[in-house]
Each structure stands twice: as structure tokens, then as C-alpha cells.
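Honest question from a wet-lab person: if I give you the sequences of every part of a complex, can you actually get the arrangement of the whole thing, not just the pieces? Trying it with mine:
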Amino acid sequence: MAADTVQTSARGVRASRQSRSQLVPTYVPYLFLIPAFALLFVFRYIPAGSAIYHSFTDWDGTSAANFVGLQQYQLLFKDQVFIRSLQNIVIYTVIRTVLVTVMAFIAAELIYNLRSMTARSFWRILFTLPLVIPTTIVFLVWKQIFAGRAGLVNEFLKSIGMASAVHPWLGSPDTALGAVILVGFPLVSSFGFLVLLSALQNMPSEVNDAALIDGCTRLRRIFAIDLPAVRGPLALVVILSINAGLQEFAPMLIMTNGGPVNTTQSPGLYLYQSAITYGKFGYATAIGTVLMMLTLTFSIVILRARYRRAHDVAI
Amino acid sequence: MSQSKALIGSTIRVRRQAKSWQNDVPFTVILILLAIVTYVPFASVIVNSFKDNQQFFTQFWLPTLPLHLENYATAWPPIWRSIQNTLIYAVPTLILVLTISGLSGYAFARYRFRGREVLFFLMLILIMLPGILLVIPMFTLIVSIGWINTVQSVVLPFTAVQISFGMFLMRTFFETLPTEYFEAARLDGASELQLFYRIALPLAAPAFSTLAILNLLFVWNDIIWPLIVLLDSSKHPISIGVLSFSGQYTTDYGPLFAGYVLASLPLLIVFAFTARRFMAGLQGGLSI
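Yes, you can. This is the full assembly:
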């Protein structure tokens, strides 16, 4: 048994690996992976398959589902609320991803350019701290910030003598989506900030020293050296941000419940409402399937841009 | 030629060092501005948590006397119950996520085996799968096995959500460990399991603490799944607890803000004690 498995593992493996694999039975790595895949199978892969299957049915969660072909999708793309939610979420995701990534990179560069190591770690901790505040609370606090009465934004406008600009930011259709996008302004504290800062600090310092000595300006160095060097982490940050953005529903659920007049409706929230409020499970899974196609498309586009040049491939 | 260049280099370095604090000034000014804008909302919540409504509406920005400490007494019982509930879900999830991510990340980092690329891709793609799509079939699954309102109905799906990213993080870390450690131990007759828990695990403490914090954050923040499977509101974790609490005190701003402060404290305290390790775990860097 052991000899048999060793043989299969050695196949196609470089000679240097061979001595090692003779000591390690082939089944060992699979044993390490069993717990992970058992859980993923039950709680990820099967539900994913089931969701996609049920998007072709009239499932209501209680009685048996009947196969209805593409009917749910046809309804979906005639549904004005859904179309509106798609538009909203694309605007939300694009603007927010750009803002979050740019702000995270700017803050990381500012800290990276500090000479004092103590100052570097101080600022890093300071901008990490808001990340551990529960997001429900962050959304509730920002709902209060944008409130018409006793909201921070309006109080600030009043205190600088601009009382005429006072506005119910989340309550009016023209500003609600913008307000939801700006939650967490100035958007410095993010996971992306941490990832980009660590990436910058991992760069060998000789490269930047050499560039400075050769008369490279700081700004030029950022674009010519730093940005290409953190390409991989940057792609990760963008992909995670796009995926999170497209699925977003918690800020809408907590702050606006999709209103006013669907101006902050998101596919995620609409999915939740369709299933839980209206019991339209088949319809809801169709929304989810469209959402999945959307996130996969975006992710593949980014990954392809990242690996356009063959020698960059280094997973 | 090269000598003169080196000379110029060293004088530049000397000059730079002498002026190091001046060099930092413009960056520090911008950072201070960013920090102020970041922290003003939270500071205003803390300041206003000590006011009653009359004080709040007459003076928004500055602290006022007397301090209404009873706001905190009012907010404490419901918030404390939610925190306890969260811990009931968080601790088992944490143990499972760390164990399973550690095992699978280790397998992908340190072994070459048939199907490795495919299995890795299968896990990676889960990071891109919208979690909300799976909520509905998972809900009917939980109903059909009679797990509604149970601890495991929250813990197991939470673990499943977290292990793909956890595996990714741990794999990145385990790859940085020198192969020689493992080869040496193997030659000394250590079993594969011993290699894992005697060599890899102790060295991976920083990565585990990063994963632990990220995991706690997730459990603390996720709202949709507990909202769906925990029909009994007395079992709600803090993410939902705070929401219903805010519904209860909509116009009673003092206790409301006091509740926000109390609900934020546990993770802030955990982070205060683990910040150094958390940062160290990210040192290896994350990339794709």
C-alpha cells in the first residue's frame, strides 16, 4: 500500500523532490485537507449547486419546487427594482473600490515615507483601530451622522455658517446613495491599508535608497517602483473590495432599507427581501446567481489584468 | 567614479539623517488631518453618550455637565447579554477555523500532491462566491436537520465561510518557513503530524493571531446568517443585538450611544493586547 502510493506521488515530480516524497506517504496531504473539504462540501459546494439549480424553479421554501426553466430570469430582467439595484450596486462598488484603494495606498505611502520607526508603528496602529469596531455600530453611527436632526454633518454645516446646506442626506433620493458610499469617510482604515502597508515595508530598502541617490523624485519613485512592486497585493485588495461591494447589503439594510424609492436598493438586500419577506425562494436564488456571475466576471477581469505578462505568474 | 558616487551617497544619507524629523513633518501633518476626520465620529459618540437629550440638542460638540453615567447602566444589561451570546458562537468558531485553516494551509504550502492545483483553485474560488447566494439553501438545510436556534447552526457555517481565506493566509505564512527545518526533523524520525504541531504550529503563532482577530471580527460583524437561523431573539449575537437595541432607544441618544461604546469595547480590548502579533502576522504579506 505505502510503496504503491509513493510511486504515484513521485510521478512527474522533479528529482530534487523525489528523496523527500519517498519519506512521505502520498495520502498525508489529503488527510490534512479532509476536515476543510468536508465542511466546505456540506456548507458551501452543495448549497451553491442547490442555489443555482433552484434558480430554474418556482421554489417557495415549503412546497416542492417545479422546474420552470428561465422564467425567473425573464421576470428578473423585467423587474425595475432589480435593474435599479444593479445600477446602484455597480456605482457603489466602482466608486467605493476606487476611493478605498486610493486612500489606503495614499495613507500607506505617507506612513512608509516616515523616517521614524516609532512614528510608523504608531500611525499604523491608529488607522487599524477603527477596523475592530463592529460594522453594525459603524453603520448605525453613520446613519446618525447623516441624520437630518442632530446629525454630525448638519451640525458641522451649521457651525461653519452654512445652515442653508442642511439636508436629510439619507432621506432624500438625490443624496442617499452618495451618503451610503461615503460611510467611513475618509476611508483610510481598511484591510487594504494594512495589506498595502505591509507590502511596501516588505520591499528591500536598497531599491528605494538607490533610486533616491540616482536623483529619482519621491513622486516618480512611487509610480515607477512602489506601485509595480505592490501589484499583487493591490490586485488582492481590489478583488476583495469588488466582491464585497457587489454583495453589499448590510449598510443598506441598516441605514436606509433600500429607500428612499429604491435609490439605495442593492441586489443582496433585494435577494434577502424576496426570500425572507415574500417567500420567493426561486426568484431570490436567481438574483443570487446573477450576482455570482457578476462577481466572477469582475474577478476574472482583474486577475487577467494582473497576469497579463507571463513572467508575473507567481501564485 | 564609483567611489565618488558612493561618497555622494553617504553624504546624502548623513544629510537625510540629520534632517529626519523635518522630512517627516509634511507627511505627519496630512496623517494628523486624516486621523482627525477618521476619529471625529467616534469621539462624538463617546462625548454624547454622557448626555441626556436636552444636553445633546443644545450642545452637540462639547462635553457637558453633569455627566449622565446612568446611560451606561441602562445600556449594560441588553448589550452584555448579546456579548455573552457572541462569545458562545465565537469561541468554537475560532477553535475550528484556526485548526482547519492551519491543517489545510500547511498541506498546500508544504506538500506536492496530485490534484493540488485543482483543490487550491476550488478553495480560492469560494472567496469570490457571494455568501448571500448560499444563505437560502443553507437555511432550508438547517431547518431540515432541525438545527434552528442552535449553536452549531451558527458555528459550522461560520467556520465554512472563514476557512477558505484562513487557508490562504496560513499557506502564505507556512511557505515562508525554511524547508530545512522540516527535512531535518523528518530525518530524525518525526512523523508528519509531529512536523505539523511541533515545528510549524509554534512558528506560526503570529499568523494564527492575525487569523484569530480577522475571525473574531467576522463573527462580531456578520448579521445576515444569525438573523436568519436564530429566530429566538434572546440568542442574538451583538451584531443583531445592537440593531434591536437601537430600535428600542431610537430617540434616547444618551443610552443609545453608551450602548455603542459598550458593544465596541470587547474587541478593542482584545486588539489592544494582540496588536503587535496581529501586525506581525501580516508581515509576510498577502498577494495573488
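Two things worth pointing out. The CA atoms of residues 59 and 65 of chain A lie 4 Å apart. The first helix of chain A runs from residue 2 to 10.
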